[in-house]
Fold these 2 entries.
Entry 1:
Amino acid sequence: MADVPLRLVIHAPTAAALERARRNAANLRKARPDAAIRIVANAEAVAAALDRPDSDTDPLLRLCGNTLARLGRTAPGLTVVEAGVLDIAEAQAEGWGYMRA
């Protein structure tokens, strides 16, 4: 199956889920370096992502703009999407797999 394109959205809504998502993404990249991976963080995972950056997986992060606005924070250097739920739904509509961390 290694010749089948692999695209996975890993959803992280909590700080603990963000840690799991980062580990999952690292493990997937090791096993399938060609895989396309997104970590979509919303709710409390957004603050955790900002407070505990990770240079290996931060390029995969997509932070919920609604959560950032609610927190009154910005995310310089990170990808911000309008809404985490919308980003996940659009990715699934495009054929991406979904996993909640």
Entry 2:
Amino acid sequence: MTETVTTPTVRSPAVAPSLGGLGLFTVLLAAALPLVDFFIVNVALPTIGRDLAASEAVLELVVAGYGVAYAVLLVLGGRLGDLFGRRRFFLGGMAAFGLTSLACGLAPGAWSLVAARVAQGASAAAMLPQVLATIQAATTGPRRAKAMSLYGATAGLSMVAGQILGGVLVAADIAGSGWRAVFLVNVPVVVLGLVLAARVVPETRSQRPEPVDGPGTVLLALSLLALLVPLTEGRAAGWPLWTWLSLAAFPVAAGLFYAVERRADRGGRTPLVPPSLFALASLRRGLVLMLPFSIGFSGFMFVIAVALQGGAGLGPVPAGLALAPMAVTFFFVSLAGPRLVARYGTRVVTAGSLIQAVGVALIVPAAWRDWPGLGFVELLPGVAVAGAGQALQLPVVMRIVLSEVPSVRAGVGSGVMVTTQQSALALGVATLGTLFLSLVPGHGMRDALVTTLLVQLAGVLLTGLLSLRLPRTIS
């Protein structure tokens, strides 16, 4: 009798997705686009206003419409990427970003530009969370730490470079395009990104995908809209009754959102923003620190663009290039960031806030003494030192926030972080921008600028104090 022995078929384990060097370059290129576009319009607003006969309130909507749509939909974008595949949403979001950028560049009127900017913000919200989630899911150990440091450096550099690029493009008036070039420049970059992403970005998704949290999504959107819309539009609209009603509704909507999310979390479901995620001290404390940092960053960028063009009489290129030293020092100092963190831990963030405070403190007397002759030379010491300080903060804080988030929650973790950052950027323009513009009629632009800088300086010192509560090391 012949005995037949069968051996069980052994399935080799699935190969973990890996993000190579070109893949990392591609996702970082995509990460730069939304942040560049948030700031690129600052120096283009006067030209847009003249060309489209747009009022101040409508011009603020060009900025706010993008920022609010972006902030409101970011967490949802991260969840959908977890559910349906991050590469798929990355490609779709990038393609939509290119199309909406084209729509912005071809907008025939002010309101069509506002609509296109809202759609552009929504597209960015589908694309950007997949960047961080892909890095979290497709890298490990030192490679992840390096990738996160590069992401933070890219984010900070993009915010400064966007304003410089905007001034250059407006002044260059390529083929008579004027301000439209600040949006049309995205199109060839998106085409390049799509070609590369289709080849080198791996597909990742959550191993335990959860359905979209409908009530949480609606309540988060209502909360952010109730806060951001009146703050960005209130001053230009004359603070009508609806702005105060909206601000009064914000704590109610935020409280309902938290209650719904906590009940879903305790019930074993996965809410849009799981409250249990905030049990991670690194995430919780990092997000708290990111708020004043981002508010001060975006507020300064907006105010200095308005002051240099509207008060100091600089054109778009000199106004943009006045910030070039900030971009240069940010770039080079951020390269040293990972080595400094490995040696000194998160105290690098505290040192960065002190250095940034010195930079802002140098700008204040320059603005007071040299106004209205404020320009590149006068700003050089202050913005260079401030840029170095910022480079020691933003990349490190981003690493800290996501350092303990499990890979299965990479999408929601990155969505929460970028939503916090984007909401704070919008708040910075709304609060510091409103303070500056409100002071100008009664006190003049020089005094308004100095007062706003002193408020920002207080915010920088606050980030330094908050940094003392960060975990000493990053896992």
